[in-house]
Amino acid sequence: EAGVQVANAFAAEFERLGVRTMLSTEAKELIMDGDTVVGVKVEGPDGAQELRAKAVVLATGDFSKDRDMMA
């Protein structure tokens, strides 16, 4: 399926760049510095963590099952 192909392409590029990917992890709270997101508090298989980074990307789900969006 298209969604799997896109996810695999992202995963390969993330690995090449050394980007940390966390699956089965719930974002509980964004960590803000004024109007800027500087991290996220998460809870997942490794327990609760506070992660800070230069950039934060939040992603969930896909649209591969939505026929209208795939048209």
Describe the structure.
The chain contains two helices and three strands, in the order αβββα. It has 71 residues and is α+β, with helices and mostly antiparallel strands. Strands 1-2-3 form a three-stranded antiparallel β-sheet, with no helix packed on it. A hairpin with a 2-residue loop joins strand 1 and strand 2. The protein is globular.
Radius of gyration, in Å, reads: 15 Å
Q: What's the shape?
A: globular
**Helix/strand/pairing category:** alpha+beta
Measured between the Cα atoms of the first and last residue, the distance is 14 Å
The oligomeric status of these chains comes to: single chain
Main beta sheet strand tally, sense and closure: 3 strands, antiparallel
Low-confidence stretches: none
Mind sketching the topology for me?
Layout (H helix, E strand, L loop, with lengths): L1 H16 L8 E8 L2 E9 L2 E6 L14 H4 L1
Antiparallel strand pairs: 1-2, 2-3
